[in-house]
Automatic annotation (TrEMBL):
It comes from Lentimicrobium saccharophilum. Residues 156-374 form the Histidine kinase domain. The lineage of its organism: Bacteria, Pseudomonadati, Bacteroidota, Bacteroidia, Bacteroidales. The modification 4-aspartylphosphate is found at residue 65. Residues 5-130 form the Response regulatory domain. Signal peptide: none annotated. Its EC number is 2.7.13.3. It is found in: Cell membrane. This is histidine kinase. Keywords: ATP-binding, Cell membrane, Kinase, Membrane, Nucleotide-binding, Phosphoprotein, Transferase, Two-component regulatory system. The keyword Phosphoprotein applies.
Length: 375
């Protein structure tokens, strides 16, 4: 159970004790709260003691009388404002002049409760304040977390783009200075590496565009009856030139149409990511098998490779943004580290699931399970 600290600042002992009794067993609950909120009551008979308690205990709410011995309540309010404390201050007073009300409101007083107040009046006011304070703090927390996530994302993205640009710039300067002579063939390896880096950046940009579309809040889907087998074939054909370079064969083992209500581009992104990974992390002379299976309540898309496989620890990080498996077998394999996280987000949009089976040095099988309308 959560609790808010309420500081009662009043030179009348009866007001302080009465407030403590009223709030003793009082709890606030709302449907959007995970738990009840109760109150811990603190007391201060003077403004000076109030400031000491405020600095030490940092209350959530202050019930503040203006007429105090020594410094006045309005000065305590000014102190809270000057310190930028996240505290709701409510003035409790018998004689609130217009001038005091204006000044107190200007200095951040949330409300006025006239004395004497009934238990119901105090509880009702505290209930309203608690709701507003809870929502305000929850909003601040969500904004802070959102900013942190955006900062981390941009930091990783900057690094991913900066590294290949630096490499290409280095190769171009070597060629500009003709450090290896005048023959263009002397720079073939650098040109190949530069083109490979550019290809990687293009892949990253395409992945980012997919990610932006998915995480835009309301991604636009063009749902229609599509042939999943046909889309698998298009993806396999798209990846075949890359597979030939890697000496890997791709086999589409399903021939019959498998129909489903889906966005064709999203299904193609799923296959493109699965097949390109199966080729990328394969061995020379390896193979990739693609299956589409029509179940009773779902459709299964399966891509199996004869590649380098993964350990259980490596599998656990697969679907995180910008995560690439790093080990001696993958150090020359490039990628954005976004493909599988994008795939997972798309599958979640279809309320589907992904299963991964992998054995190091033997291969990996990804199975995407998409529920159909009849499920």
């Amino acid at each position: 159970m959560a609790s808010y600290k309420v500081l009662v600042v009043d030179d009348e002992m009866g007001i302080r004790m009465g407030t403590r009794r009223i709030l003793q067993n009082f709890k606030v609950d709302y449907p959007f709260m995970d738990e009840h909120i109760e109150y811990v009551v603190l007391e201060a008979p003077t403004g000076e003691e109030a400031i000491e308690i405020i600095d030490r205990e940092m209350p959530d709410i202050i019930l503040l009388d203006n007429k105090l011995p020594g410094i006045q309540g309005i000065e305590v309010l000014e102190y809270v404002k000057k310190k930028l404390y996240d505290i709701v201050v409510v003035m409790i007073t018998s004689y609130a002049s217009l001038e005091l009300a204006v000044k107190a409101t200007r200095d951040g007083a949330y409300d006025f409760i006239p004395k004497p107040f009934t238990p119901q009046e105090l509880r009702s006011s505290l209930e309203n304040i608690t709701k507003q304070l809870f929502l305000k703090r929850m909003t601040q927390k969500m904004n802070k977390e959102g900013k942190l996530i955006r900062f981390q994302f941009l930091s990783v993205l900057s690094h991913e783009l900066k590294a290949p640009i630096n490499a290409i710039e280095g190769y171009l300067k070597i060629m500009q200075d003709k450090q290896f002579g005048d023959k263009i063939t002397s720079y073939n390896e650098m040109i190949d590496r530069s083109l490979e880096r550019i290809s990687g950046m293009r892949s990253l940009i395409m992945d980012l565009l997919d990610l932006t579309k998915i995480e835009s809040g309301k991604p636009v889907q063009h749902m229609q009856l599509v042939d999943i087998t046909k889309i698998a074939g298009i993806s396999a054909d798209t990846m075949r030139p890359y597979a030939i370079q890697k000496d890997v064969d791709i086999y589409l083992n399903t021939k019959e149409p498998v129909m489903m209500e889906a966005d064709a581009k999203e299904i193609e992104i799923i296959f493109n990511n699965l097949i390109s990974n199966a080729v990328k992390y394969n061995k020379q002379g390896g193979r990739v098998d693609v299956f589409v299976h029509q179940g009773k309540n779902n459709i299964k898309l399966k891509v199996a490779d004869s590649g380098i496989g993964m350990t259980e620890e490596e599998k656990s990080t697969l679907f995180q943004d910008f995560v690439r498996i790093k080990n001696p077998k993958t150090k020359h394999i490039t990628g954005s580290g976004l493909g599988l996280s994008i795939l997972k987000k798309i599958v979640e949009m279809y309320h589907g699931d992904i299963e991964v089976e992998s054995i190091p040095d033997q291969g990996t099988t990804f199975t995407v399970i998409l529920p159909t309308e009849n499920s």
